[in-house]
Amino acid sequence: MIFKYKSLFILLLIIGILVTTSFVLKYNNIILNEPIIPYDYKQDESRKVNDKSITWIIHNYVPILNAGGEWMIHAINIYLIKEGYTVNVIVPTFPIKHYEGVNIYTFNDRKQIQNVIQKSKFIGTHFHFSLMAVKTADIAKKPIIIIVHDEIQKPYLEVFKKIYSKENIHLIYNSFWIKKLYTPMGFDNCVVFPPVYWKDYQVETNRKYVTLINCNANKGGRILIEIAKLMPDIEFLGVEGAYNSQIKDKTIKNITYLPSTPNIESIYEQTDIILMPSQQETWGRVAIEAISSGIPVIANPTEGLREALDYCGIYVSYTDIKGWVETIRKLKTDQNYYKKISELCIKRSRELEPTPQLKIMEQWLQKIEYK
């Protein structure tokens, strides 16, 4: 019951934030693709810049938006805080001022925003507010760190390097296949897999459900429905995602739907198998969280999921519904096969311990200077 009301509360917060964001932008005379500080902004030389500080300008943050990109930034932030960094996040609107050591500012906090940017060494960003952040970094004369989560950023990066000197734009790629894709553009970069600490997601599972997390079109909401219809004896769980329309069919008796939740461990505690029939997936955080508990993952073989899961993944094309049914059935009926895959999952999750990559990232950050 507590879980139910907590999830409802989070959902209402998300709706409220989405509704009020456009109002906040208008009220504060902020244009989405313009800098968040005035064009005549001057860096106050009397204010010492904290060499261990970063300010993110982004569209939303956890635990309100529980999407992979936001959790990646938060995991990076937590690591940086442990290393002595001051971490700020600027978003259009937010119900709290601090979250797990991160200082959160909203667009209403105009004077405070200029103050934290003055003191920050880096500006960080991703997704929707990247242009705003690049223009802000240019005016403030700060290096910008952009997290590249997907394969569609080339046109935007071409625009950014016309606005701001290429030497001051630094990229964090979420995988090596994404790095390879963008290498010809010649930006300074490092690779950080979306950090998942396996100990945080290691749970005892009752193996009740075959689970899909995020029921939108790309992630496989319709595929879940098709599979469930062919396997009426199997219990399926569909967890709503934090973005895009969710495809659900509540008339199917063997699918249980739950709302999006920041308490994702409670989902894994009920999960026997994870389904990831994503048509597009550049990494697959859910997969890595699941394998931390030895939960097998059946995945469409995208570049990202193949790099993330490697030898522990079971790969079936998202168009092959029969193949998904057969693979689920094998895992459900062949306990030796399940155990073998589960052991491989645990091994792979330990290989992905994020601390070594995060340490390299922090060393990389310390070498970056404004040019």
From TrEMBL:
<keyword id="KW-0328">Glycosyltransferase</keyword>
<keyword id="KW-0808">Transferase</keyword>
<dbReference type="Pfam" id="PF00534">
    <property type="entry name" value="Glycos_transf_1"/>
</dbReference>
<dbReference type="InterPro" id="IPR001296">
    <property type="entry name" value="Glyco_trans_1"/>
</dbReference>
<feature type="domain" description="Glycosyl transferase family 1">
    <location>
        <begin position="250"/>
        <end position="343"/>
    </location>
</feature>
<dbReference type="GO" id="GO:0016757">
    <property type="term" value="F:glycosyltransferase activity"/>
</dbReference>
<protein>
    <recommendedName>
        <fullName>Glycosyl transferase family 1 domain-containing protein</fullName>
    </recommendedName>
</protein>
